[in-house]
Amino acid sequence: MAHQTDKNNKSNTLSTYLFELFVFGCLGALSLNAAHASAPKTKVTPAQYFANLKADAPAPGALAAQSPLATSVSKSGRSPAEVAAADESTMTPQLIALRDSVLKANTPEQIDELLNKLDSEYESYPSSFKFVAAQFLVLKPMRGFFWRILPLVEKNTMLHSMILSFAKTAAAQIKVYYPNGQWEAGWAYLSEPYVKNGKVIGQIATEEALQAFLANTVYRNLRKATERLEALDLTQSMTWDNKIFYGSASYEDKIDRYRLVGEVERLMTISSFHSNLAQLAFQRAYSLQGVVDLYADLGKLYGFDGIFTGNVSGAPASERTAVVRAAKFASLGTLLPDGDSFTKLSLQHLQKSAYYASEAWDALQSRPVSETYVINSGPYLAAPRIQKIRISNLKAMLEGPAQIRSAATGEIAEVNLTAFYETPPKDLKDLLATGFDGGSKWAVKDLTLGDGKSTQVKFRNFYEGRPDQWNVSALQPYFPKVSSSDDVRRTARILDEAYGGSEAALPLAFIVR
After folding, report:
1. What is the mean pLDDT of the chain?
2. CA angle 242, 247, 248 (to 5 degrees)
């Protein structure tokens, strides 16, 4: 169940929104959109890359030992049958004090001081306050993140320009939509260098350093926050003040200012956090060595780096795949020596995410429909059948082999999603297409003109270079009924048409396009 994102739904989504925006936005820029780049050659061997990564990132056992991850969630108390009042009088003194502190925080140093205080005094707070404090603390490792990754992104002009454009756009939006000192201080917290232990904080200059930072510092911090939320009970709803999000000049008339937060919001936040933890764990499983170099080469296909040479071919799948399979990228996307431990850890987080989403759905159905809550059950209960099917499909796929039905055609696809994490492929490149449509790049069509004469017009054949053959044996462990390339296409379509099936289609989504 997706988080709502309107102005009344900020209490349980603020830290999630910022976390995803700045962590996965930048990670995605490196791993997906860095085709705009022109990068230097990789200078370390695969063994050195892994050694560097392990020096900065914990062993999988250290992460697993942080606390056990069960694959089920104990039933929580249901939300109260009556809707409580939401106003200043129902806020806890601690949350009022936090609100006032946030509204006074106009420098990165003040934000850092506030976060340190929340962390050190966390256990002394009541449950309602802990729910907010735990989410604010998700931002703690992100201080100076944009400055810290500068050495990595500035190695090539286009990647640097893209990240810079992203950052400048975000900063401009703050000036327009959140014109107050708190948001500007928050942006400075995320983007400016700072001193730690008497020295300027270190920067992230290599792919393995970024990978380690996400798997170590960011993962540990988010997991701690998640475990703190799991320990809470918000059966008795708390009151949230939207002024915390919009600043001291907002909600002077107090209309729509206060909202209730209860078990539904807690469970949905935990589900979202586990989903993010799954991504962080999975990215530690496979080597990212050469990823910036790779997308520099891919950028030439799209024309970004080849714009002055005239070498623009439209980046068909055949040419993209040929670049990825180049010898110099042999280690990119290969399972690291301890990678299977991280894919299994990722699966555990996905399982918990699905179970918490299921629990949130159950709690939502038992809660009165009311705009007073941050998450109003009305829109979800308008289509309960679809929600139930989606959650049922997700849970089934994360428990073992499952049969998933297309909502459009009724066809069935068999999926063994857990095998993708328990016995992960040794090289993700093995899942890429092996054959492509070999048609002509251009097609010709005869057109009849108004005077009865005809003319031939040349136009692009957009099917040229599309993937049409795959290594079926590499896909069979995860899609048992796939026995031909036609089955690959059919299975991808069925999963895309099924409620909740797109999550399972992820291994297929990038190889059939």
Report:
1. 80
2. 105
pTM: 0.84
Half-sphere exposure of 90 (CA within 13 A, CB side): 17
Instruction: Name 293's Cβ contacts closer than 8 Å, sequence gap at least 6.
Output: 39, 40, 41, 42, 328, 329
Residue carrying structure tokens 């070999």: 438
**Local structure of 463: helix, strand or coil:** coil
* Amino acid identity for residue 326 in this structure: A
Question: What single letter denotes the amino acid at residue 41?
Answer: K
Smallest Cα–Cα separation from 485: which of 477, 494, 476, 496?
476
Between 325 and 512, whose confidence is greater? 325
Place of tokens 């810079």: 164
Cβ-count burial of 20 within 10 angstroms (0-12 exposed, 13-18 middle, 19+ buried)? Answer: middle
Beta bridge partners of 239: 260
**45-49: long-range contacts at Cβ-Cβ below 8 A with a sequence spacing of 24 or more?**
46/287, 46/289, 46/331, 46/334, 49/207, 49/208, 49/287, 49/289, 49/331
Q: Identify the pLDDT of residue 162.
A: 60
Answer whether residue 358 shows pLDDT above 60: yes
Assigned token pair, 299 = 């950028």
Q: Which residue has the tokens 């764990």?
A: 281
Query: Quick one: pLDDT at residue 134?
Result: 93
**SS percent in the chain: helix, strand, coil, step 5:** 55, 10, 35
Residue type, position 402, single letter: A
Q: In one letter, which amino acid is 234?
A: L
Q: Would you state the torsion angle of the CA atoms of residues 99, 100, 104, 105, taken in this order, to the nearest 10 degrees?
A: -40
